Structures are given as C-alpha cells and as structure tokens.
Amino acid sequence: MKVISLNCNHCGAPLEVPKKARFVTCGFCESKLAIEHSGNTYSTAVIEELQETTQQLARDVARIKSSSDIERLDAQWERKREQHMITGKHGAKSLPSKGGAIAAAVFMGGFGLFWTVFAFSITRGASSVGAPGAVNIFPLFGLLFVGFAIFAAVSQFSKAEAYERDLKRYQSERRRLVNDMQESD
Ligand SMILES: [Zn+2]
Fold first, then answer.
1. How many domains does the chain have?
2. Is residue 100 within 8 Å of 90, Cβ to Cβ?
3. Proportion of the chain in helix, strand, coil states, percent, rounded to 5
4. Which keywords, in A-to-Z order, does the entry hold (predicted)?
5. Range of 37's domain?
6. How far does residue 2's CA lie from ligand 1's centre (Å)?
7. Contact (Cβ atoms closer than 8 angstroms) between residue 19 and residue 35
C-alpha cells in the first residue's frame, strides 16, 4: 500500500495516509480533513471549511436565481400593466383608478341631470305654447347621458379593481423574492 505524506491543514502536523484515502482525521488536533490532489501534489482541507464554501456557493446560486426571478417578474408586470391601461378621449393611455371612475361619474352624471332638468323646463314651456310633442324627447337625452355615465363609471371601476388586484399580487410576489434574496446573503 502506497503511503503519502501530508500536513494537517489545521495544525500543521505531519500525516501519513494511504494514497487512495480521501479523508483523514488528524491524530493531533482531530480535525476531519479531506485529501485533495491535483497532479502530483496532495494537500488537506478542513472539512467544515469545505462545507462552508459549499454552503456559500449554494447561497450565491440562490441569490443569483432570485435576482433573475425578480427581473423576470418585473418584465412580466411591465407587460401586464400595459394591458391594464385604458385609452382616454385624446388617445392618452392611463391606468384605471377608482377615484377617476367616481369623478367621471359625478361630472358626466351631473351634466346629464342638469341637461334633463334644463330641457324639461324648456319643453314644458314649449308645449304650453303649443309646440309639437317631439320636443318632449329632449329631456330623455339627459337621462341617456346619466345612464351612460353610470355604465362608464361601473366599467372603469371594475377595471381599476382588476388592476389593483394584479398590482397587489405583483407586489407581494416581488416582496417574497426580495426576502428570499436577502435570506441567502
Ligand atoms: Zn491537525
């Protein structure tokens, strides 16, 4: 059996080990050592240190993975956010908001109500002087407008809700990935 001479990597004591051995326990300091050889040179490494290196590597890999997961999530969200955009009157894109839905409803609904009341008072005046009955239709346009305002508001409100739901999901997922990354530091 061939024997090689080594030094303990921990205490420096000389060790003799069988050439084929892969591990040895130092007889002086009792360190558990791994025998490494490259080419013709042999050396020892304390196993706990090796484990630490391996764990560090695993942590590095985990960190790289989480950071690329975050990048992918961000890119995904960028696309999704785009899909949530609503196109305004002048072609400008914006994100739906509950406040915006309510403001638009109040504004348009208010206008519709005003129209209805205003047109009603005019047509009443008109029919009392014998104008054709067709003018009675004018107040109805106002009601139609109110109906449209409510419909538009409900539609934008539910879009805003869907957007907020997706936004929350994205934020919590991102927070989880950031935590994962910090834990692996
Ligand atoms: Zn030793």
1. 2
2. no
3. 65, 15, 20
4. Membrane, Transmembrane, Transmembrane helix
5. 3-53
6. 21
7. no
Looking at the structure, tell me whether residues 120 and 175 fall in a common domain. yes
CA of 37 to the centre of ligand 1 (A): 18
| Distance of CA 59 from the midpoint of ligand 1 (Å) | 29
Beta strands in 89-145 (DSSP E): 93-94
Domain assignment present for residue 65? The answer is no
Same domain assignment for residues 169 and 99: yes
Could you read off the pLDDT tens digit of each residue along the chain, which spans 185 residues?
788 899 998 999 999 999 888 899 999 999 999 998 877 788 888 888 888 888 888 888 888 888 899 999 999 999 999 999 988 778 888 899 999 899 988 998 998 989 888 888 887 776 666 656 656 677 888 888 889 999 989 999 999 999 999 999 999 999 999 888 887 66
Instruction: Compute the distance from residue 25 Cα to the ligand 1 centre, in Å.
Output: 8
Last residue within a domain, chosen from 13, 37, 53: 53
| Helix, strand or coil, per DSSP, at residue 83 | helix
Distance (angstroms) between ligand 1 centre and the Cα of 5 equals: 13
